[in-house]
UniProtKB/TrEMBL annotation:
The keyword Zinc-finger does not apply. Residues 69-186 form the Metallo-beta-lactamase domain. Its cofactor is Zn(2+). It comes from Bacillus cereus. This is Metallo-beta-lactamase.
Length: 187
């Protein structure tokens, strides 16, 4: 009988300790939450959301088959300027995105990495080129861009390419056909 009582007391103490530990962890996590910064344009068609100190997601609402569809890319805030990963649906949205991020960060967009030749990634390439922004891509993306009526990006990225933009290192990687035949991953 004594053994059972000790076992029950031990389980209760263990359970209380676990509850207190979980409660303490939850309190610490709650106190460490950071406000997510989101900036939008007046019409709500473009927003940038902070992921960390130097990386933001850009999201634009474009039209695809008559429906409003979001498109996402990245803004990299480097010591030498801003780098976009993908443009937007078209030149108008891309121009507005560029103006928005250049105003926010007080830096120029110097480069863009085009991950594939769909409209939501390369649609603003003319706006990029008009501003002298270097548009990096794979040779396959450049070829598909031309075939689909877009201006050609540089086609300078290999299967694996390591780039450095100011203080930020970026790697592009072609994993093979996936979402598109030319899609690359950027990390």
């Amino acid at each position: 009988m004594k053994k059972n009582t000790l076992l029950k007391v031990g389980l209760c103490v263990g359970l209380l300790g676990t509850i207190q530990f979980v409660s303490t962890i939850s309190s610490v996590q709650a106190s460490q939450k950071v406000e997510k910064t989101v900036i939008k344009n007046e019409t709500g068609t473009i927003s940038i959301s902070q992921l960390n100190k130097n990386v933001w997601v850009h999201t634009e609402l474009g039209s695809f088959n008559g429906e409003a569809v979001p498109s996402n890319g990245l803004v990299l805030n480097t010591s030498k300027g801003l780098v976009l990963v993908d443009s937007s649906w078209d030149d108008k949205l891309t121009k507005e995105l560029i103006e928005m991020v250049e105003k926010k960060f007080q830096k120029r967009v110097t480069d863009v990495i085009i991950t594939h030749a769909h409209a939501d990634r390369i649609g603003g390439i003319t706006a990029l080129k008009e501003r002298g922004i270097k548009a990096h891509s794979t040779a396959l993306t450049a070829e598909l861009a031309k075939k689909n009526g877009y201006e050609e990006p540089l086609g300078d990225l290999q299967t694996v390419t390591n780039l450095k933009f100011g203080n930020m290192k970026v790697e592009t990687f072609y994993p093979g056909k996936g979402h598109t035949e030319d899609n690359i991953v950027v990390r």
